[in-house]
UniProtKB/TrEMBL annotation:
<dbReference type="GO" id="GO:0008378">
    <property type="term" value="F:galactosyltransferase activity"/>
</dbReference>
<dbReference type="GO" id="GO:0009969">
    <property type="term" value="P:xyloglucan biosynthetic process"/>
</dbReference>
<dbReference type="GO" id="GO:0000139">
    <property type="term" value="C:Golgi membrane"/>
</dbReference>
<feature type="domain" description="Exostosin GT47">
    <location>
        <begin position="6"/>
        <end position="178"/>
    </location>
</feature>
<keyword id="KW-0812">Transmembrane</keyword>
<comment type="similarity">
    <text>Belongs to the glycosyltransferase 47 family.</text>
</comment>
<keyword id="KW-0808">Transferase</keyword>
<keyword id="KW-0328">Glycosyltransferase</keyword>
<keyword id="KW-0735">Signal-anchor</keyword>
<dbReference type="InterPro" id="IPR004263">
    <property type="entry name" value="Exostosin"/>
</dbReference>
<dbReference type="Pfam" id="PF03016">
    <property type="entry name" value="Exostosin_GT47"/>
</dbReference>
<dbReference type="InterPro" id="IPR040911">
    <property type="entry name" value="Exostosin_GT47"/>
</dbReference>
<protein>
    <submittedName>
        <fullName>Exostosin family</fullName>
    </submittedName>
</protein>
<keyword id="KW-0333">Golgi apparatus</keyword>
Length: 246
């Protein structure tokens, strides 16, 4: 409809081919009120002793042929003690297991993030708020979704905060999740976790109407600033077009 042509839509999952859609983070369970609370949490997750290389929270889907989540659960089980831990959400069991899920992310260096019911997944933001590095298998799960929040896209900076393993390579056996993550090494993994922790303020929604303050932006601040920036850019284009006609 003509009246909707210039409406900017803020969505937890955007259509990559629609320039008016803007992806914003899924709300999580962490809603701090002050900069001090955020900084304290950042220090906590950054200095956390992580005993597991990678973790996975999810459920196999028996109704899906060659279910990818079931494949990841199997790989996690074969990885061995200290390499992978999982929380099986089969039968809706994760509805009341938020503490167990959070502890898994806090204890893991990396967290596996296959697509959810759609391409994106709230679990990715739970994982990052816990200071773990997300491992993605579909580029559309994040890299073309959250341009205002996550470095990537044309900048080619996805590797600063995430790991991408093509799902087709995992399915065919050409890539092993465990081997890919082991090759990263402790030093690089630490740098990636530092980048994730640095991005935490922009991925959460504070519990105060006035925002966190002290120059720290939360997800809402980033969204509003982005929309206003779009308005200014559009006005500038219109002025230039009018000047050109004159």
């Amino acid at each position: 409809m003509p009246g909707m042509e210039n409406v900017t839509r803020l969505l937890i999952e955007r259509n990559p081919w629609d320039g008016k859609d803007v992806g914003i983070p899924y709300p999580t369970g962490f809603h701090p009120r002050t900069v001090a609370e955020v900084s304290e949490w950042q220090q906590f997750v950054l200095n956390r002793n992580r005993s597991t290389l990678f973790g996975f929270v999810g459920a196999a889907r028996s109704g899906f042929k060659d279910d990818f989540r079931a494949l990841l659960l199997g790989e996690c089980g074969r990885a061995g003690k200290g390499r992978c831990r999982s929380v099986d959400c089969g039968g809706g069991r994760c509805g009341n297991r938020s503490a167990e899920t959070l502890n898994l992310f806090l204890d893991s260096v990396f967290c596996l993030q296959p697509r959810g019911d759609s391409f994106t997944r709230r679990s990715m933001f739970d994982c990052m708020l816990a200071g773990a590095v997300p491992v993605l298998f579909w580029r559309r799960s994040a890299y073309v979704q959250y341009g205002w929040y996550l470095p990537g896209g044309d900048e080619g900076r996805e590797g600063e905060w995430s790991v991408f393993i093509d799902r087709r390579d995992v399915r065919s056996g050409a890539a092993s999740v465990k081997k890919v993550l082991e090759k990263i090494g402790e030093e690089r993994a630490r740098r990636m976790r530092e980048k994730v922790v640095d991005m935490i303020p922009k991925l959460l929604y504070s519990a105060t109407e006035g925002g966190l303050g002290e120059g720290m932006q939360d997800a809402f601040d980033v969204a509003v600033e982005g929309v206003l920036r779009r308005f200014r850019e559009q006005q500038l284009r219109l002025h230039r077009e009018e000047d050109g006609r004159v």
